[in-house]
Amino acid sequence: MFSSEYYSEIKAAFDRQMALLEDRIQAAGQQGEGLVPGLGRNFLLGKKEEILGALGKCTQQEAQALRFLYSAMPFSDLLDYPVDLFLAYARHGVFLWNQGDFAGRVPEKIFANYVLHYRVNNEDIADVRKFFHDSILEAAGRQKGTMYEAAVEVNYWCAREATYHASDGRTLGPLTLFRNVLGRCGEESPLGVTALRSVGIPA
User: Fold this and answer.
1) For 172, left (φ over 0), alpha (ψ -120 to 50), or beta?
2) Using CA atoms, how far apart are residues 150 and 144, in angstroms rounded to an integer?
3) pLDDT tens across 161-203, in order?
4) Is 174 buried (19+), middle (13-18) or exposed (0-12) by CB count in 10 A?
5) 143: left (phi over 0), alpha (psi -120 to 50) or beta
6) How would you classify the pairing of strands 163-164 and 182-183?
7) Which H, E and C letters describe 150-169, residue by residue?
């Protein structure tokens, strides 16, 4: 999937994340289980095993994509979300890289950071990419036009699916906004970015 040069950068950053996790495991072992509720040594060990176990079951390309996601995420996301969620993003990314409408047309670093990457803002993360990809293609049909034309079509799709509504409530994730139909600008922008990334357009 990635060139050996770029993947070596990803692997080094992933290894730093795992080293940080290992440091937290060691610190939790020294401090005792009760000092940080919910983040005791057993939880952290389980998180490490969960990540390494998933990597062991991936294809080579899925493992590269998953390592990228873990290398580029805030440490809090590593702790807060299950590995299966990020594996879904990795698998959809591999699909777009190999078979998406724009396969081979996006440079690897742009693809990794602006298509594969799961986070847009501070929204809750959910497994949405395949759902959005399929919904957009169902609405727009499979068109082999330019990326610009596809981006315009995705923008129209977003406008049909969500309407602006001012709110001071908690930030909705893209899937929740899609289901609620109403959202503020800070929620509509993650919807738009997620929709674009779901079909392989960097955003």
Assistant:
1) beta
2) 8
3) 887 666 656 567 777 777 776 776 667 878 888 889 999 999 9
4) buried
5) beta
6) parallel
7) HHHHHHHHHHHHCEECCCCC
DSSP assigned state of 1: -
Q: 164 pairs with which residues across the strands?
A: 183
* Alpha helix (H) residue ranges in the chain: 4-31, 41-57, 60-72, 75-80, 83-99, 108-111, 129-140, 147-161, 174-180, 185-198
Q: Give Cβ neighbours of residue 31 (< 8 Å, ≥ 6 apart).
A: none
Instruction: Dig out the tokens for 143 from the structure.
Output: 């068109």
pLDDT tens readout for residues 64-119? 999 999 999 999 999 999 999 999 999 999 999 999 999 999 999 999 999 999 99
Q: Which amino acid, residue 154?
A: V
pTM of the predicted model as reported, rounded to 2 decimal places = 0.86
DSSP state of 74: -
115 burial (CB, 10 Å; 0-12 / 13-18 / 19+) is: buried
